[in-house]
Structures are given as structure tokens and as C-alpha cells.
Amino acid sequence: MSGPYNLKYIHLFVTETSPGVYILSRNGRMADRVGRAEHNLTDDLQREAAGGTYRYFWFEYTASPAEGYGLECTWYHRYHPTDNPEHPIALMGAEGACPVKGCQVAAVAHTRG
């Protein structure tokens, strides 16, 4: 994971067109929101920056949207972001299970299968 960086300077640090996962923060010390970009991390971060709520971000590129979902779940459980009221949602049409051991979302996904 790279960061924290100021959201004003996304273009200096996020240089690839790639799926990825990010953490947004108001103060640069704690996670306020965790999210993922299924196609273009730069576009998603710029959209978040335009909202003006957050000042800092951390990020990591992922090889695929599915890998991004797994990392987003991991960060959600690890950092307990204050602005994520619900567990991340799996990809559209995908039967994704949260990879975090003991997660209720993972248990529900496995019982449906």
C-alpha cells in the first residue's frame, strides 16, 4: 500500500490505468472510507476528490476487479472505516465471498453456494 498522499496530487502517484483499492482520510492518520475501482483507479479517486470530503489517500493497484474486492474486504475489516456503513459488495453478477476468516458475509456467501 502506498500513501498517505494528498488528494490534490493523484496524478503524481496514480500513474497506471488499472483496477485498485483505496483508503480515504480526512486527517491522513485514520481510514474514513475504503473503496475499490473495478477499472480505473485514477477516475474513481478524482471523483472522490471532487466531493471535497477527504484530503488524503492510500492505494494499491490490483490485477483484477476480483482481487480488488478481496483487498477491499481485508482493509474494511482491518481499518474499520467510519464512512463505510456496510460491508463491501461483491462484483456485479459474481459470487464473491469475503476472504476474511469469521466474516458473516463470507459465511452467507458460502451457504448460498
Key descriptive features of the protein:
alpha+beta; GIY-YIG endonuclease; 4 strands; four-stranded antiparallel sheet; 113 residues; disordered C terminus
Structure description:
The chain is an alpha+beta fold and 113 residues long. It has one domain: GIY-YIG endonuclease (3-Layer(aba) Sandwich). Helices cover 35% and strands 19% of the residues. It contains four helices and four strands. The chain has helices at 10-13, 41-51, 65-79, 104-112; strands spanning 2-6, 20-25, 33-37, 56-61. The protein has a four-stranded antiparallel β-sheet with strand order 1-4-2-3. The longest helix has 15 residues, at 65-79. It is globular and about 35 Å long.
Distance between the termini: 32 Å
CATH architecture assignment name: 3-Layer(aba) Sandwich
Mean pLDDT: 88
Task: Tell me the major beta sheet.
Answer: 4 strands, antiparallel
For the largest sheet, list the strands in their spatial order: 1-4-2-3
Describe the structure concisely.
With about 110 residues, this protein is an alpha+beta fold. It is about 35% helix and about 20% strand. The chain contains four helices and four strands, in the order E-H-E-E-H-E-H-H.
What is the strand and helix layout of this fold?
Layout: E1 2-6, H1 10-13, E2 20-25, E3 33-37, H2 41-51, E4 56-61, H3 65-79, H4 104-112
Antiparallel strand pairs: 1-4, 2-3, 2-4
